[in-house]
Amino acid sequence: MNNVELADVFERIASLLDIKGEVVYKTLAYRRVAENLRSLPSDVNIYWQENRLDEIPGVGKAISEKIDELLRTGNLGFLERLEQEVPPSLLEMLQVPDVGPRKVALFWKQAGVKTLAELEAAARNEKLRNLPGMGEKSEARIIAGIEALSRRSHRMLLGNAWIIADSLLIDLRKQPGVVRAEAAGSLRRWKSTIGDLDLVAGCANPLPVMEWFTHHPDCHRILASGENKSSIELNNGINVQLWIQPPERFGTLLQFVTGSKEHNVHLRELAQKQNLSLSEQAIVDASGKEFVFSHEEDVYKALGLPYIIPELREDRGEIQAAQENRLPNLLKLEDIRSDFHMHTTWSDAANSVKEMALAARELGYHTIAITDHTSGLGIAGGLTVEGLVEQRKDIDAVQKELGDSILILQGAEVEIKADGSLDYPDDVLSKMDIVVASLHTSLRQPRERITERLVNVIRNPHVDIIGHPSGRLLPNREGADLDYDVILKEARKAGIVLEINASYSRLDLDEVHARLASEMGILLAIDADAHTIDQLQLMAFGVSVARRAWVNPELIINTWNREKLLSWLASRR
DNA sequence: GCCGTTTTCGGCCCGACTGTTTTCAGTCG
Questions:
Q1: Which nucleotide lies nearest residue A278, CA to C1'?
Q2: Do A507 and A541 contact (CB within 8 A), yes or no?
């Protein structure tokens, strides 16, 4: 079992215990471990083999024993017994908005409801309204919530979420009295996929703004409406929340709504130790005196911390690092001076070599690599070996025309075939300026096979960059089941570059593995994988992955100047 | 169930909103 599978088990235990009515702190402990396992950069099996499970945050004696049993046998007696007691089908009902563990237990024990389908039938047959604490409105809310489930799509892509949020923000900022308005939540933290949208505004008179929000033309229904907080469902099924505080309290509000929840809990614990209480409204000291903040930076300052940028706020060590004044120096978009993965009309893209070069020069880049698909990827109209010769003439002509202002490398995104061989022979690869190799097909091979397939490519001295290593497509298609401990060790040994693909449907390497790669000193490239000139600007999304992964900017080859880059390329040839 | 610059036991963040209640429980972020 891998980290994610173990995390799923503990998440399941937490939910079942919640329904059973176990004390919340116990279920919280399981949830914390699940979260920590998901962001653990190294394979949990290694901790297990080296007898260091208790070094994982939140893992104590009881959970350590459970991990051991799961990794040894693949099963867990504790969970099996729990599922005898609490039917796992009950978990379906937790997806319904406003239905939590207490309600599920109520429906199960007092109405015999065990599945989501039975819940819907019971609600429609008016069987829930007479249960304790329930009424007609609660019953109607459950029906509406179940209907919303089918409208609600999976998580949004980061790029799409920004588009929707920006358009709402433009109107929000025009509302009377709104001094400041920002996107917060996971969007402001640049998480790879987004669930709900959170907007915050500083405004002295919130009611008219809330009125505008809940009567927005795209509003499908109102989920909650209050003075400080309202929540709506848009016609496209996306939920948006708007939080408002007076402008002088905007700092604590923005801090709070940006999250993450785990970061905020940790921060509030830290405040408590200083006899302070932190909320979205203010910091209050032991005597009840209130301190308000219009700027977020001052909230951190008041707690004795340097400013922590939103991308780091996942409770993955950033608060400790801030306390010890060792927050990482992080990559900025303006540090990016080159892009090593883009397509042109020579394969499946919209713009010519010259158009791409001009657009990249406009962005301030000193070097680009043209990396069209190879013939093996049939759907992408890949280049044959003969076609490469023609393309080289085109690149040479554009280079001559544009002179020294931008360097255009001839590369290719070489297809890694199912048997692990590459689409071009070595003698062709050796004549290229730079070579990206990527997986697109047969991604479902078993772990050992696909890991070996990629290791072979990493060891090929003609390959410089592994493009989007896992092949995942957000939000739903999982990447290859790679053994990252093997892949990263081989990458370090070979001195090869791993790509953080900046297309927001990829963001691959993901942040967890990018962080580990950086800790291991592996070189990384961030590439937009542009198929149009506009898509060169997707780079910002790749930069966000590097920031969230604490990546050391010096390891990112896009930050190097041209001389350093060329001498590195020469050393590989 | 975890954890310790006030603790190996007794804590474990804080507030808004809703609906069912006449003061609060449940859910959510």
A1: B14
A2: yes
For A573 and B14, how far is CA from C1' in angstroms?
A: 59
* Cβ-based neighbour number of residue A355 at 10 Å: 16
Q: What pLDDT digit, counting tens, does each position of A479-537 carry?
A: 999 999 999 999 999 999 999 999 999 999 999 999 999 999 999 999 999 999 999 99
Statement: residue A380 has pLDDT above 80: no
Nucleotide nearest to A58 (CA to C1'): B2
* Nearest nucleic acid nucleotide to A136, CA to C1' distance: B19
The per-residue pLDDT for range A237-291, each reduced to its tens digit, is: 899 999 999 999 999 999 999 999 999 999 999 998 898 999 999 999 888 899 9
Among A462, A473, A378, CA closest to A428: A462
Q: How far is the CA of A130 from the C1' of B4 (A)?
A: 47
Q: What angle do CA A520, A525, A529 make, to 5 degrees?
A: 145
pLDDT of res. A526: 98
Length of chain A: 573
Distance A478 CA to B25 C1' (A): 40
CB A436 within 8 A of CB A499: yes
Q: How far is the CA of A18 from the C1' of B10 (A)?
A: 22
**Phi, psi at A143, each rounded to 5°:** -60, -45
Distance A413 CA to B5 C1' (A): 55
**Could you tell me if residue A521 is left (phi over 0), alpha (psi between -120 and 50 degrees) or otherwise beta?**
left
Q: How far apart are CA A169 and CA A164, in angstroms?
A: 9
Chain CA centroid to CA A498, Å: 18
Residue nearest to nucleotide B29 (CA to C1'): A261
Question: Would you say A234 and A240 are in contact if contact means Cβ atoms under 8 Å apart?
Answer: yes
A454: its two tokens: 């990629």
Nucleotide nearest to A64 (CA to C1'): B1
Q: What is the pLDDT of residues A156-182, one digit of tens each?
A: 999 999 999 999 999 999 999 999 999
Q: Is the pTM of this model over 0.70?
A: yes
Distance CA A512 to C1' B16 in A: 33
CA distance A64 to A127: 43
Calculate Rg over the CA atoms of chain A. 26
What's the Å distance between residue A131 CA and nucleotide B24 C1'?
17
Q: Report yes or no: A557 and A568 within 8 Å, Cβ to Cβ.
A: yes
- The distance from CA A47 to its chain's CA centroid, rounded to whole angstroms, is 25
- pLDDT tens readout for residues A315-355: 999 999 999 999 999 999 999 999 999 999 998 899 999 99
Cα A151 to chain centroid, rounded: 23
Q: Has residue A568 got a pLDDT over 90? A: yes
Residue nearest to nucleotide B11 (CA to C1'): A25
Q: C-alpha dihedral over A222, A226, A228, A229, to 10 degrees?
A: -20
Separation between Cα atoms, residue A520 and residue A488, nearest integer Å: 8
Using a 7 Å cut-off to protein CB atoms, list the covered nucleotides of chain B. 1-3, 6, 11-21, 25-29
pLDDT, residue A476, reads: 82
